[in-house]
Write a structure and sequence with these properties.
The chain has a single domain, classed as 2,3-Dihydroxybiphenyl 1,2-Dioxygenase, domain 1, CATH 3.10.180.10. The protein starts with 6 loop residues before the first strand and ends in a 10-residue tail after the last strand. It is built from two helices and eight strands, in the order βαββββαβββ. The protein has a four-stranded mixed β-sheet with strand order 1-4-3-2, covered by helices on one side. A four-stranded mixed β-sheet has the order 5-8-7-6, covered by helices on one side. By secondary structure, the protein is of the alpha/beta class.
Length: about 120
């Protein structure tokens, strides 16, 4: 049975460039740094960079949303770092705000402020 998310892996054609971009975007260094994979610990979960994965043809598919305290500010910061706008910040009901950008490597990076998220329920 599924317990919950642990790791999101983004496909990147240039691991060194992606590592540098995500280090700036996240404001932290990777905890795992090898030529075949780079991993960042983000709020108890893992954001991984995989240089061997086939490159995405176009953004799409599953959206992973990372928790933020200020959707608009983080959205603007990521765009300033070179991400492309994907979905502008918006309210989706119940006090939840979302937005997304396309990182410089073609991956969708979702942002969410969800006052209903229950951290103690994470297993």
């Amino acid at each position: 049975m599924l317990k919950g998310l642990r790791t999101i892996v983004y496909k990147v054609p240039d691991l060194a460039r992606a590592k540098a971009w995500y280090t700036l975007a996240l404001g932290l260094a990777p905890y795992f740094d090898e030529p075949f994979y780079v991993g960042f610990k983000v709020g108890g979960f893992e954001l991984g960079l995989d240089p061997d994965a086939p490159a995405a043809n176009a953004p799409g598919g599953v959206h992973a949303f990372w928790a933020v305290d200020d959707v608009e500010a983080v959205y603007r910061q990521l765009v300033a770092l070179g991400a492309q706008p994907h979905e502008e910040p918006k309210q989706v009901g119940g006090g939840i705000k979302v937005a997304s950008v396309i990182d410089p490597f073609g991956n969708i990076l979702g942002l969410i402020l969800n006052p209903h998220f229950d951290p103690p329920a994470v297993r």
